[in-house]
Amino acid sequence: MVTYNYMVVDITERRGTEPHTDLVFQALADATRRDIVRLTMHGEYSVSQLAKRYPMSFAAVQKHVAVLHRAQLISKERSGREQLVRGRPDVVRAAATLLDEFAALWRDRIDRFGEVLADEMKGTPKMKGTPK
Amino acid sequence: MTVTDVDVNRENKTLTVTAMFDASVERVWQLWADPRKLEQWWGPPTYPATMVEHDLSVGGRVRYFMTGPEGDKHHGWWRITSVEPPSRLEFEDGFGDADGNPNPEMPVTVARVAIEEAAGGGSLMTIESNFPTDEVMAQMVEMGMQEGITLAVGQMDALL
User: Fold this and answer.
1) Chain B contact present for A73, CB below 8 A
2) Of B49, B29, B33, B52, nearest to B41 (Cα)?
3) How far is C-alpha B109 from the geometric centre of its chain's CA atoms?
4) Which residues in chain B have Cβ-Cβ distances shorter than 8 Å to A90?
5) Cα separation of B28 and B116, whole Å?
6) What is the DSSP letter of B101?
7) Is the pTM of this model over 0.80?
8) 3-state DSSP call for residue B71?
9) Residue A126 in contact with partner chain B when CB distance is under 8 A
10) 10-residue block means of pLDDT along chain B (160 residues)?
């Protein structure tokens, strides 16, 4: 298990490149947008190709793509008259991993917490008494 | 027996940990209040924590370092913002520089601990950890990135 402290070493050298996390989480909070990210992770899609997949207008899909783009979850590239959309696994992975790691860190801590308590109960003779 | 639930709320930027212990509130509190006991669980076995300073009064500090397998030291600190022994503790949880002083470049989270008597005996402990600012979240994402731990895209739904 990687420790949280261990994780942050040298972070200061990499500043200025971080995506705006709020935007990332907001963007991923919508099922259609998650689907677009998932899809474009495996290949490039034009906005009109994407629009055909969902029961909504081209404009609505375009809006979803814009939200994802703002969060840097996808990149857009112009190809003739079309915009090609491609997912950015690095950003998705970072957003998903982080809180998961943080949760794992606390889960491990609580496991140890329980072990320390259990050991105490086993190891402490009754006569020592506990303050109430 | 420990029943643990860890809930991540992305909207409120909160991590909530709930755990049940077959021990009195006072005993559970001692694992926070006694630095020798705190050392036994705060850091993982491969990065054991050593408490250098431990003052659980309002405004007080806890300073510690964790020692890695290579002898590498990672410093951390708390600043106590509220305390009601044996049931409540609130503190800022941050990182230190090489000398153990708070490092302003590093993210600070706020942790709220509540310990109460459970209905069926034992104690219920709740820890709420907040990421106070967008900047902190951004930094934390950056850190996650640095670890380079891969996660299947399919796992996204489970996380959201």
Assistant:
1) no
2) B49
3) 9
4) 145
5) 10
6) S
7) no
8) coil
9) no
10) 71 82 94 95 88 97 89 90 98 85 77 94 91 54 39 37
